[in-house]
Amino acid sequence: AIKVLGEHLVEDTSYVQRFGREAQSAAKLNHPNIVQIYSINEDAGTHYFVMEYVSGTSLQKLIRTEGSLPAPQAARLILQTAAGLAAAHEQGVVHRDIKPANIMITDRGLVKIADFGLALMAEGASRLTATGMFMGTPGYLSPEQCLDRDIDHRTDIYSLGVTFFEAITGSQPFKATSPLALLRQIIEVEPPDIREL
Q: 3-state class of 60 per DSSP?
């Protein structure tokens, strides 16, 4: 599969940097549960990278189609995702955008973590965002991300927990009418007890 940075984004250096960082972060990782990057290139102003093609579906599509998953199936998928994240964390890479859409499941049931576009390398990485702007998907952000604080591997663990919650229940733990209200819930409210749902 080839991922290309859209022409309209090439003028924005922050997007070009983010695109390159995604490829570099993922390319240094070699694990069965992470989408493999084969090549990072630029040709006549077109930035692209070549990566492993995953034949299958995303966890997001699986949840949308089936609703809540049986706990053993959800646990198997989350354990594989956790193994891939552990390998990334050992290399100093924090994904920062773990969510069902970024968890691919092959036709054989193997999990592949995709889209390291927000990945943060522990050594010398720039956040590529102005103060007060978060990066990630609101429903899966950790409280630290919502508060624009420094993050580490625990951010991915939190997001993986939200993903596990959604896989088992069919919905996210927090719901709100606006992104700001959602961020406030993440920071201030305890998630519902899954056993009561």
A: helix
Q: How far does Cα 84 stand from its chain's mean position? A: 12
Name the pTM for this structure.
0.84
Given the residues 12, 43, 97, 107, select the one marked as catalytic.
97
CB 183 within 8 A of CB 145: no
**Residues contacting 110, CB < 8 A, separation 6+:** 32, 33, 80
Distance of CA 117 to the CA centre of its chain: 8
| Residue 97: active-site member | yes
- Nearest C-alpha neighbor of 97 from the set 113, 80, 83, 74: 113
CA proximity to 124, closest of 95, 156, 92:
92
Average pLDDT for 162-181? 92
Model confidence at 121: pLDDT above 70: no
- 92: CB partners within 8 A, 6+ apart: 121, 122, 123
